[in-house]
Write a structure and sequence with these properties.
By secondary structure, the protein is α+β, with helices and mostly antiparallel strands. The protein has three helices and four strands; from the N terminus they run E-H-E-E-H-H-E. One of its GO terms (molecular function) is monooxygenase activity.
Length: 95
């Protein structure tokens, strides 16, 4: 069963470019992962501090493996200094 994930991130105003650089690197590397079916990053039009990921994973195991990658761990370590608030993560299934 595929897993659909939406993540909403809100950058600190003075950290938008720093965050975007890390997120772009995550996109580049994540799209190479075997379990990744879709990994799309968007940025708000009205509020450029908002970033939204739309992801589709082949399995929970694939998503778990993704979360162990060095570039994801690097983001998690830097998130407190870059984000205004903790990321909002929504997991779903297709209905």
């Amino acid at each position: 069963m595929s897993i659909y994930l939406t993540a909403i991130l809100k950058s600190k105003t003075d950290k938008i470019q720093d965050l975007k650089s890390i997120l772009d690197n995550m996109v580049l590397n994540t799209r190479k992962e075997e379990a990744c079916e879709k990994y799309e990053l968007q940025q708000g039009l009205e509020d450029e501090t908002v970033f939204i990921f739309h992801e589709i994973w082949k399995s929970k195991e694939g998503l778990d493996a993704h979360n162990q990658q060095s570039y994801i761990k690097e983001f998690a370590e830097k998130a407190p200094e870059l984000l205004e608030e903790p990321a909002k993560i929504y997991l779903a299934k297709s209905v």
